[in-house]
């Protein structure tokens, strides 16, 4: 990934609100980031931190209502996706930006064969005829490591294991050679052995195809092994951004440090308790006017309750949204 490369995706000031009977929920609050060609960007944080909602907001995957993308820009291919027509967005989602969902069993249609579901975007967006689409679908199943691919095109989703269904979802996402692949916790529902296989597959595909990838997860251990750069989200905002080496070696935000301490250590005592982050994530009934993490932060002081910290640079390509200036912390393995 060349330094100074023009971003393939550039997000500026994104805001997303859910309208509910109990009032508005401000799920994404002025989120800005970019994605370079060929880069793998990790997006981490607890459930409810805004990771998935942010990425689904980019390409119009949230139902409206209740979702309302109220502000921001999503620059991709010379256009602002937030201002594009539904037809243009469908074309982008089908061809240029692939999306892998967390649960392949609910994402795959149970009444159609996997071959049909892979062939559909090929015929719609690539203009292939039935014979060409079937040939390409077989190639895609082979690419993602499904044995006997030609025969398995005629199988239904329930005839595949969880790991194989996830491979099918990856094949569908890759069908039209996307420039960007967004993976929303794609290994969460799988056992650790299958997780490792899927992660290895993604690394191989990235080398072969050269696409940019956004990998959404709550698991920093996964990110350590695959990402170039990491953004940490909390309360619908980005609280820290750095290269993976810098983030693990010199975490600056108290939330990032707390997340890193929750990673189990293989060198620890068997009887040692796992670290947890005390307290609950905030209920975002209004845009944050103060630090959202202050109630759970051991370093909070008066200013944290009065102002919402903006991201500030603390190193080369490393920024943090925090008023606290910490002493160095030992690197994390």
The counted number of beta strands is: 12
**Strand-and-helix sequence, N→C?**
EEEHEEHEHHHHHEHEHEEHHHEE
Indicate the percent of residues in helices: 25-40%
Average predicted confidence as pLDDT: 90
Overall 3D form? globular
Question: What is the distance, rounded to the nearest whole angstrom, between the alpha carbons of the first and last residues?
Answer: 24 Å
Adjacency order of strands in the biggest sheet: 6-7-8-3-9-10-12-11
Structural class: alpha/beta
Low-confidence stretches: none
* Helix count, DSSP H or I runs of 4 or more residues: 12
Strand content: 15-25%
What quaternary form is this?
Answer: single chain
* Largest sheet entry: 8 strands, mixed
Detail the topology: elements first, then pairings.
Elements: E1 9-20, E2 23-35, E3 40-44, H1 51-58, E4 67-76, E5 79-80, H2 86-96, E6 97-100, H3 104-107, H4 114-125, H5 130-143, H6 149-152, H7 162-174, E7 180-184, H8 192-209, E8 212-217, H9 220-226, E9 229-234, E10 237-243, H10 244-249, H11 254-261, H12 302-306, E11 312-315, E12 318-320
Parallel strand pairs: 3-8, 3-9, 6-7, 7-8
Antiparallel strand pairs: 1-2, 1-4, 4-5, 9-10, 10-12, 11-12
Helix pairs in contact: 4-5, 5-7
Can you walk me through this structure?
- This protein is of the alpha/beta class.
- It has helices at residues 51-58, 86-96, 104-107, 114-125, 130-143, 149-152, 162-174, 192-209, 220-226, 244-249, 254-261, 302-306, and strands spanning 9-20, 23-35, 40-44, 67-76, 79-80, 97-100, 180-184, 212-217, 229-234, 237-243, 312-315, 318-320.
- The strands form two sheets. An eight-stranded mixed sheet has the order 6-7-8-3-9-10-12-11, with helices on both faces. A four-stranded antiparallel sheet has the order 2-1-4-5, with helices on one face.
- Helix 4 crosses helix 5 and helix 5 crosses helix 7.
- The mean pLDDT is 90.
